[in-house]
Structures are given as C-alpha cells and as structure tokens.
Amino acid sequence: MSAASEPSCQALAGLLEVLDLERLEVNLFRGISPQNGWQRVYGGQVLGQALVAAGRTVEEPRAAHSLHGYFLLAGDPAHPILYEVERIRDGGSFTTRRVKAIQHGRAIFAMSVSFQKDEDGFEHAAVMPEVPPPEALPSAAERVAELIDALPESMRSYWQRENPIELRPVDVSRYLSRDPHPPAQNIWLRANGRLPDDPRLHQCVLAYASDFTLLDTALIAHGKLLFDRDIQLASLDHALWLHRPFRADEWLLYAQDSPSASGARGFCRGSFFTRDGRLVASTAQEGLIRKRQTAYLIK
After folding, report:
1. Set 235, 256, 258, 271: catalytic member
2. pLDDT per residue over 131-152, tens digit each?
C-alpha cells in the first residue's frame, strides 16, 4: 500500500501491517502480532492472516466464498506465526486451500478455505432486521462519556482506546444491568478509516472483525460479559461464508444470536448486512464458556 493511501487511524494502519504477511517460501508465510498487552493472540487476527496466506496462493479474480477454521492452542503475541498453505485443488470453478498456523513448533490453528470464480445463478437472501441507522447511534467515545460511571473499568479502557474496527452497538442495556436477556445483539461496524480497493483485503478485514463479539452473544442469556473475571472464554471454531461483494470500510450490520449453550460450549451465528439491506456474509462459531472455579487447560 502506498504512503498516499495510508489510513489516518493508526490502529487501522497497524491492522493492515499485521495482515501484510511476509512470504518465506512459495507456500510459507510469516505474520506478526500487535504488541497491545494482550496475553494471547486475538482469534480474528489468525483468521484474517490465514485467509491472506491462502489468497496469496490463488490467482485473481477468484474470491473466497467460505472458510472453516479450528482454534487449537492459544497464540503467543510475542512471537511470529508461520502460515503453511497446502494446495488441495485447483479446479475449473473452485480452488481449495488448507492453512496451518504454527508457533513454537506446534499447530495453533487449522483452516480450510474455498475460492470460486465469479458466476451468475439463483438469488435470494434473508431480510435485514429493522434497527436504527449507525448515524443515529453514539460513537464509542460518546458511549463511554455517556455511561462512564456504569461501565466496568475493563470495558471503559477498551472502549476508550483507538481500535481498527469502529463498533456501534444498537442496544447497550446489557452493559447496565446483569439481568438475563434474549441471546441476540445487533452491532454496526466498519473499518476505522478508508481501505484500499482490493476486494480480498476487505474479506480479510471482515474475517478479522467477525470474531469480535460473536461468542459474547451467548453470555447475554446469562447476564454475563466477556470482561468478567469469573468466566473463561475461548473460540473453538469459526466458519465464515462470503455471499456478495462488500466494502469493510462502509457500515455493515452484524446481526448475531445464540441458539444454544451446553456442555461448557456456546454456539453463536451471525449475518452481515450492508446498510441498504444486502446480506453479504454469514458466520457461525462454537466457543468454550466455563465458570472459573478450577484451573482448566485445553488439551
């Protein structure tokens, strides 16, 4: 990306740097993590970087239409992550890749992703929920100023820092009351600045953003927040289907719900709509949700 196209938001510029993997060999790439104080690598970062690695082994203009990934171990942000791409198939219409993320000699993430050439076909789509437009909702800074005394300190510091993705929740009542609510939420989001016109980059930024609030949706039914110290949360898997072209630097409504939680796991799903109501992507995720009563390890 040229200096003239650098985004003004430093957090977004940092994200683009994180997504710009270093090629070490034909099918081998190296990615870095932002040094922001987190003890483990954010799952959406690994999703986005793995999609970048896969895409760099596929000739354009084929675009990703689905990915399915498993989080195996927590990533260490202090060390680079290697992404090894396996070229499964190069067909007439579809291209399939498998990506393994490696750190300290062990796989921390594995993903399959499919690319397709552009084709015409049947069309139908779900209808976007009726919600206020993003301009009618306060920005993150305005929310913090409005709710400063009611928000937990951990939430306050999170919302006050500059983020690469701008989020505007439609309903913040769950942050003000610990009463259980129906496990669903709607959040407007977009990149916090203008992105280059590369459609693949917009897909990778969306993959990055899709992990932000999805598992948190399961907690709404129990009056809990992802910042609570008495619960343990971890993404176990993540699926993303990319239906139609979009820009990740324009407002997208992320409509999420959680149909089930059981066995210390929560299942959540989401839909991305453009502001004019087009369904452009869908997500599904299962994650670990444990009460912190004993020290647990994922083996």
Report:
1. 235
2. 999 999 998 778 777 776 666 6
